[in-house]
Amino acid sequence: MTVSTPKAIIGPIAVSVAFVMELTLVPLLLPEIQNEFGLSLSQMAWVFNSYGIAVAVGVLIGGWLGDVGNANRIFGIGVLFFATGSMLVAFAGSYEALTAARALQGLGGGIFSPLIPILLTRASPRQPGKVLIVWGSVAGYVASAAPFFYSSVLNGHRWNLAFIILAVISLVALAIVLVSRPPDAQSPSAPAIPRYTRLLRAPELWIVFGYVFCTYGAITYYLFRLPLWLAEQEVQVVSIGLNLSILWLSFSIVSTLLRNWVDEPRLKGIMLAAPLFVAAGFPLAYLCNSAVCLIVASALLGTGLACSNAPSTQLVLKFAPRGMSAISASLDITFARLGGVMTVAFLAQTTFGASVLVMIAMCLAALIFAVAATRRLDDFEQVTA
């Protein structure tokens, strides 16, 4: 039986800070990277997506190994890959080296990221939703300050300093994990390959994956396109950093406010609200040409992310077949990353204005998935009651 200890919770959360900071800092750095290497918008999409594709692959590896092996050891290997990739990105001298290093960074992040919710929920089995919210809010508060701090304090330095910082933070976090020795998530026995066909017989799980694909696809596109769009309009780096910080700060604040609700029936309403917030943010950012509107739009996107993050993760773990929580969490992250990768790839050459309609359509699809998932939750609870 898993014994809950503070160190078992602090370790994974500390590692997740570096992982989330990649999400918050890299979009801010895209214009500077584009200028230094002289890259086109399609090449920038590859720099951005090479990480996302590698994460999508890495989470499947990490999830499978997390179900059959020593999860703590696999977790540490993933963090080491992430730190190494971050350092290689910092010293990349060409577009090809930059893209390859981003892939290694993403592979490491993919390996350890699906094990974060597993280790956390096993460390706090009585309040899994609350510990997931704490995880999201703590990482979010730290990460939300990163874009504004970097753009206002470290703006005079080259972009590669951010990746050096990521490498250092992840290595320090790895040391915390090794010292804390969190409860092992190792399964009692390795599953046979046919066992994974049980995932195909869990339709409620795939409904949640569809929801994740659409919501995270829209949010990821916003993170990719907004900084480049604002840079085209010669908006100052500090202003771009402020908008990104507002997004992540609103995510953290709303996550904190929701920490006591996600384990209650309100989970359904929270999940339904997420795509509505995201859909409202896009047209506001594009149509209302003012700094205030951009800030409100970023806050709406951050709120939507908070409303989708913990509920969808909790449903994935609830709907996961017995003994397959790690691979299910991996697929959760894979669909989130694939949503972002495919959205950025297909809309890389599209104007920000034209993409707004596509984002609204994706949010509508996410809303349909949310309705279906909450209905499945009612049926699932009746069966398991």
* Proportion of residues in helical segments: over 70%
CATH superfamily: MFS general substrate transporter like domains
Radius of gyration: 20 Å
Count of helix runs: 13
Please report the first level of CATH classification, the CATH class: Mainly Alpha
Present the secondary structure layout.
Layout: H1 6-37, H2 41-68, H3 71-90, H4 95-112, H5 115-123, H6 128-153, H7 160-180, H8 203-232, H9 237-257, H10 267-287, H11 291-319, H12 325-347, H13 352-384
Which properties best describe this structure?
MFS_trans_sf; MFS_dom; mainly alpha; single chain; 385 residues; transmembrane transporter activity; membrane; 0% strand; globular; Growth Hormone, Chain: A; 13 helices
How would you briefly describe this protein structure?
With 385 residues, the chain is an all-alpha fold.
Describe this structure in words.
The chain has a single domain, classed as MFS general substrate transporter like domains (Growth Hormone, Chain: A). The chain is built from 13 helices and no strands. The chain has helices at residues 6-37, 41-68, 71-90, 95-112, 115-123, 128-153, 160-180, 203-232, 237-257, 267-287, 291-319, 325-347, 352-384. The longest helix is centred in the last third of the chain and has 33 residues, at 352-384. It is globular. Mean pLDDT is 84; it is low at 185-194. This is Putative MFS family arabinose efflux permease. It is found in: Membrane. It is a multi-pass membrane protein.
